Amino acid sequence: MKERDLLNGDLYCITGEKYSLGRDNIRVVKEMIAGGIKVIQYREKNKKMLYKYQECKKIKELTDQAGITFIINDDIALALALDADGVHIGQEDLPIKEVRKIVGEDKIIGLSTHSPAQANNAVKKGADYIGVGPIFKTNTKEDVCQPVGLGYLEYVAENIDLPFVAIGGIKEDNITLVKEKGANCIAMITEIVGAKDITNKIKRIREKI
Ligand code: 3NM
User: Fold this and answer.
1) How far apart are CA 75 and CA 29, in angstroms?
2) Which residue owns the Cα nearest ligand 1 atom 6?
3) Is this prediction's ipTM beyond 0.95?
4) I need a labelling partner for 178 at 20 to 30 A (CA). Which of 48, 148, 158, 196 fits?
5) What is the pTM assigned to this prediction?
6) pLDDT tens, 138-183?
7) Domains of the chain from N-terminus onward
8) Ligand-binding site membership of 189 (annotated)
9) Does the annotation count 27 as an active-site position?
10) C-beta of residue 190 within 8 angstroms of C-beta of residue 17
């Protein structure tokens, strides 16, 4: 079921096993859930499909039990095979209208955007939410563009009528800046998966959000 307010005031956690201090994604997701999060995106760029399928199957069981929204990055087939809640795609993936044809009306489609033109286009094309970033410098995404900064975030907060999530280089200690520019949902990879105590890190960050 599509929840249009899914990004309301929370932390959007994304997996990244190579930054997880040797812990596997299943353990990381369990710790994230213990921290009380409402949405998880599975993002693994370099794993084989069968491995991703097996891993996501276990994650789906956990998110179903906890009543958490489960989004899969890039892989539409995997999202459908597992009946995940949605997919998150980038500017160089299939156009939204084609993705919508494949996944149907009930699945969430998120789109990464990096400029006002892309954000406006996402509204026109029917994305359910957008990613807004990278706000700060990040080394986590390989093909990432230069930081768009807080100015783009402010533009989206004031002009774009879609749920959005700020992303890119966001940490516990710069979150207040991001909030001040109008973000009420914030995505993080390394700050969360690279924390020694993921559950406590999430609890502290969620209080700030
Ligand atoms: N997307 P971290 S930035 C996955 O700007 C991703 O669209 C971005 O990782 C975008 O929290 C990014 O470790 C990486 O900086 C976020």
Assistant:
1) 19
2) 141
3) yes
4) 196
5) 0.96
6) 999 888 789 999 999 999 999 999 999 999 999 999 999 999 999 9
7) 11-208 (3.20.20.70)
8) yes
9) no
10) no
